[in-house]
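Anyone else keep sequences and structure tokens together like this?

Example one:
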Amino acid sequence: MTLKNQETTKKENIILTGGSGGLGRAIVKSLLSEGYSVTNLDIQSPKEIFSGEFFLNVDLTNEQDLTYTLSRWENLVSSQSQSPYGFVHCAGYGGPYHKITDVSLEEWDRIFSVNIRSAFQIVKLILPKFKKLQLGRLVFIASSLSIVGSANSVAYSASKHSLIGFVKSLSDEWGPFGITSNAVSPGYIETSMGIQEDQVPDHRNKIIQMTPMRKIASTYEIARVVSFLLNKESSYINGANWTVDGGITAI
């Protein structure tokens, strides 16, 4: 586990998983622009660490590594005289595009480990801290496949449906303490897990034509919704799954 950071005077810290990927970087930038500091938990180092960002290298599927890293995060926040304020679970793993009969148990477990178990482990630690403050924001990146199903993505879709149940139950359990829990469900995004500019044109065009907005979302468009749900002005939004997919699941 390694720690890298940039000096910051910001006082409210948001812990973020998967902050080194395409969507994660956009969320980091958006949160920094809102005045928060961000602790990025990822197995992959970002190409650049921004002012106000701390990076902790961690394997989210390794329980001991994650537990140790979370203790380092606690010490980090304390040493910087910052207050834990929010959590964004952006890390995600889709696995291979296979029929369920071709998915191994190991692959199934890895998908659930990244997409839901690591979120549980982090939330279990940070919720008591938020309870003391009577304030906290939890945001989980789900997917349009948390709303609908899809052939050849059974494990991934099941993990994202599970995440929504997790969010709804958290909202009831921790809402009385001023802690909100919400999900954001993107459709196709311009990222390595979504769809990229250099992918087969026919496939891109098919996706675009399926989407009422006739475009693929930018990471910025998703990140701004995440930032809003973390804002104190969103204090009465709780237990919701915000669909940000250009209308693809509405038709």
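And example two:
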Amino acid sequence: MESGLVWKVIGSVAATLTMFSFVPQILKISRSKSVNDLSVVTLVQFTAGVSLWLIYGLHLRNYIIIVANSVTLLSLLILLALFIFFRGKNK
């Protein structure tokens, strides 16, 4: 396999894993209706980092970085919305 192709495959696999890493947490919160064990500080920090990666990807015009971080950012925004909606409801 050509060296450039190897790196594209590695980048694509990493991007896919990152994009869908928050889906289990979203499903758990949706089912349990509880965000008691969710760290909002970690969520906000990760959202800031992913936003910066997205800006960086836009600057480079790198579609793998752009797509991965756009989907990840959407997942994080859903988690933040769930946190706001469900916080304090199960105390």
